[in-house]
Amino acid sequence: MDNKKYIERIKNLREDHDYTQEYVSNYLGTSQTMYARYERGANELPIRHLLSLCKLYHVSSDYILGLSNKL
Prior knowledge:
Blueprint: H1 3-16, H2 21-28, H3 32-40, H4 47-57, H5 61-65
């Protein structure tokens, strides 16, 4: 997995949907600080959060992980 692609994609998806880090962190049930750490690559995104982001943005996990460019 290309970590840089994964980090870019979760940040770009959030910004493309005009969501704040606070909104997404509340959706995931985590703190804004922890979500910011995911976007910086300081912490890895748990699978449960990956699945939730797929539902939130209506994209595949392969897209978020950088394994596919198909939404």
